[in-house]
Every structure is written in structure tokens, then in C-alpha cells.
Amino acid sequence: MVQLLFILIIVILIADFGLERYLAFLNIKESGKELPALLRDIYDPEKYAKQQDYFRTNSRFGMLTSSFSFVITLIMFAFGGFAWVDGLVQQYVQNPIWTPILFFGILFIANDILGIPFDWYDTFIIEERFGFNKVTRKLFILDKLKGYAMTIILGGGILFLIIWIYTLTPTYFWLLAWAVVTGFSLFMTMFYSQIIVPLFNKQTPLGEGELRTEIEKFATKTGFNLDNIFVIDDSKRSTKANAYFSGLGAKKRIVLYDTLMDKMTNDEIVAVLAHEVGHYKHKHTLINFMISLPATLLLFFVFGLILKSDSLAQALGGNVASFHLNALAFSILYSPISLVLDIFTNVLSRKFEYQADAFAAKHGYAPQLESGLKKLTATSLGNLMPHPLYVFFHYSHPTLYQRIKRLAY
Ligand SMILES: [Zn+2]
Questions:
Q1: Which residues make Cβ contacts (< 8 Å) with residue 388, sequence separation at least 6?
Q2: Which residues are within 8 A (CB) of 220 and not within 5 positions of it... i.e. 6 or more apart?
Q3: Residue 255 has pLDDT above 90, yes or no
Q4: Alpha helices, DSSP H only, in 196-263?
Q5: Residue 254: helix, strand or coil by DSSP?
Q6: Sign, CA torsion 178/180/181/186
Q7: Which residues pair with 204 in a beta bridge?
Q8: Is 205 helix (H, G, I), strand (E, B) or coil?
Q9: How confident is the model at residue 408 (pLDDT cuts 50, 70, 90)?
Q10: C-alpha 345 – ligand 1 centre gap (Å)
Q11: Centroid of ligand 1 to alpha carbon of 385 (angstroms)
């Protein structure tokens, strides 16, 4: 049994890496194809050459980072690396709650430190070379430190609660842990913009002026309150522009990147905003949250079943069942199921994007949304020709081509 579980874990790791590399390969091959007529006005030949360079540079870099992390993960699983870390922790702390927390803490820190050179290279070499980067060295370090503090407080806190519940009642663990995680995720969905975002960015209400007047006209028509529209100072990190809708009920808000303002006309910004209001009108945040409920329940139910298995811990080189070793083995064994759930989530998300586009079109913004989306893609050197299979697995939005075709007015 132990042998079988061990082989299964290794096979899943290799299959997952193989699938990712295959999809990336298809995507690179596809990118060389000739553009359909609808997309030819987005880049001039010189800019398109730059886009291809950016895409290939990122693909090569992705190949490097994923191979590096795959090799390290494989070594850790194949040679009992996790049992070794467990033994190390047990020498100092032997407590049903603090041993797992320390174990995961060490893995998190080790993993993060290994990732820093790659993050640094991506920000200061690649993004810099293509003119996107605005992050200073100071901001990079500050973001890292704030990220750590957040992980320790939020991640550590939720982990503590989950393990504590397990020590109280292994039988009803799955149900209680699910309830706690659900409550936490509901809280985060509502207050993300008010608690997390301000740690990293400033959000200001939409200022007076022509844009506000334009938006007001649209907002009154659709009943979306202007007080829920904010501008975020993302220009301190990147020149890339975006907008998003977040929150539920009274906590809903639409956030526009300040980089949007100098790249787009007012009409185009209103069109993008109309798309975001579409997400709100169709209750997409609420539906996503409701769908996550049974998915997390399934996860905790299966997790609860295997937490007592000695074989799982032994497959990782341990002796007896322990919360952290079993959780780690579970995370790999469960990954084929989460792959399927992710595909489902992405299929649904792409459907939602079409609905939001249709909402903007219904209010007469189809041409402005089309030109706005084209500009967003062009200014971020977006890939115009992703492979359909890559899109199927990974894209939360339809491709630009699909969206424009659907918008046809
Ligand atoms: Zn959207």
C-alpha cells in the first residue's frame, strides 16, 4: 500500500509537469500562426515583433521556473525530504498544533526564498526590458515584507484554527473546518478591498471631471452607485492597465487602475466599467462563492478520511500518521480532482465574461468595449493567438478574438 501510494504521488507529479509543458509547447507553436483579419490592427509590424519577443521570453522563463520547482519537489518527495524536515521540527517542538504550523512555516519560507531570485529577475530584468516595470527595489522589498506579515497572520491563523479543530474532533473535523474556511472566505470576499488592498495600494473615489460626468450618465441608467467606484494607484508597480469588480452586497466596488486613465478615451473607460457592472448585475461574485461551497466540502470530506492513514505518512518517509505529512500527501493525490474543478471554474468564468460583455453591448458600448479591449491587450503586449487547449485549461477570460467576434455589432 505504501509503495503504491508513493508511486501514485510520483506519477501524478510527473504527469502534471508533463501536461503543463505540453500545453506551453502548444501555445508557443500556435503563437507563430498568421493573425485573423479582425486582429491585424492591434499591433504594427514593429510592435508585433516586440510582442512575440515578450511572449517567447516569458515562455522560456516559465519553462525555467517550472522545471526548477518540479525538480526540487520531485527530489523532496522521492528522497523523503519532507520526513526529514518533520524530524527536524520534532527535535524542538512536539505539539499536535505547533509542530504542523512550524513544519508548514519552514516549507513556506524555504519555498519563498528559493522564489525570490526568479521574482527579482522577472520584475527587474524582463518587465523592465519591455518597459512595464515601475517597481523600485524598495517597493519590491516592502511588498515582500507585507506579504510575509499577511501570510503569517492570515495563513497562520486559519491553519491554527483548522488543526485545532482536528485535535478537538477528528470525526466532525471535515464539517467544522469547512464551516470555518467558508466563513473566512466570505469575510475576505466582502472586506478584501477594505482590509488587504490598502496594505499595498491607495484607492481613491473617482474625482470630479469629464470622466465622472460620463460615468454618472451610465450609472444612473443602470442604478449602480457612483460611491462604489474607486481608482487604484497601480501605476507605481506597472504600466499595464486593468479594472475589476469585487465584493458582495453593500461592500461591492469597481476598481479602475489609474493606468487606464491615460491610455483610454472616456468612452472606452465607461465601456470597461459597463462590463464590470455587468458582473455585478449578473451576481457573478455570489454565484462563484456558492459554487465554491460544495467544492470545499468535498475537499475537506476526503481530507478528513485520509488524515488517520499511516500509509500516507509512510509514503513520504514518515512513521505514523501526522496532520502535516498526510496533508502534504493529500495535496498531491487530490490535485487531479482540483485540476478538473479548475477547468470547470474556468469554463464558467469565461461564460461570465461573455455575459458581462453582452451587458456592456446592450447599453450601446460594444464598439467602445472592442477598442478598449484592443488597447488593453496592445499596451500589455498580450498574446493574440493562444492555443485552444491552453485556453481551455488556463484562461479565465475568452481570448480577445473570441470576445470581439461575439461583440460583433
Ligand atoms: Zn470581466
A1: none
A2: none
A3: yes
A4: 197-200, 210-222, 258-261
A5: strand
A6: positive
A7: 231
A8: strand
A9: confident
A10: 14
A11: 20
3-state secondary structure of 131: coil
Tell me, what amino acid is at 330?
F
Rounded distance between C-alpha atoms, residue 269 and residue 212, angstroms: 11
**How much distance in Å is there from the Cα of 247 to the middle of ligand 1?**
14
pTM confidence score: 0.91
Q: Are strands 229-232 and 243-246 parallel, antiparallel or unpaired?
A: unpaired
Query: What distance in angstroms lies between residue 74's CA and the mean position of ligand 1's atoms?
Result: 37
Helix (H, G, I), strand (E, B) or coil at 316: coil
Question: In angstroms, what is the span from residue 196 Cα to ligand 1's centroid?
Answer: 21
Give the dihedral sign, CA 45/50/56/62.
negative
| Residues labelled as active-site residues | 276
Q: What are the tens digits of pLDDT across the range 204-251?
A: 998 889 999 999 889 888 888 888 899 999 999 999 999 999 988 888
Closest residue by Cα to residue 283 from 250, 253, 248, 243: 248
List pLDDT tens digits, range 382-405.
999 999 999 999 999 999 999 999
> pLDDT exceeding 90 applies to what percent of the chain?
92
* Long-range contacts of residues 97-101, Cβ cutoff 8 Å, at least 24 apart: 97/160, 97/163, 97/164, 97/167, 99/322, 99/324, 100/159, 100/163, 100/322, 100/323, 100/324, 100/327, 101/156, 101/159, 101/160, 101/163
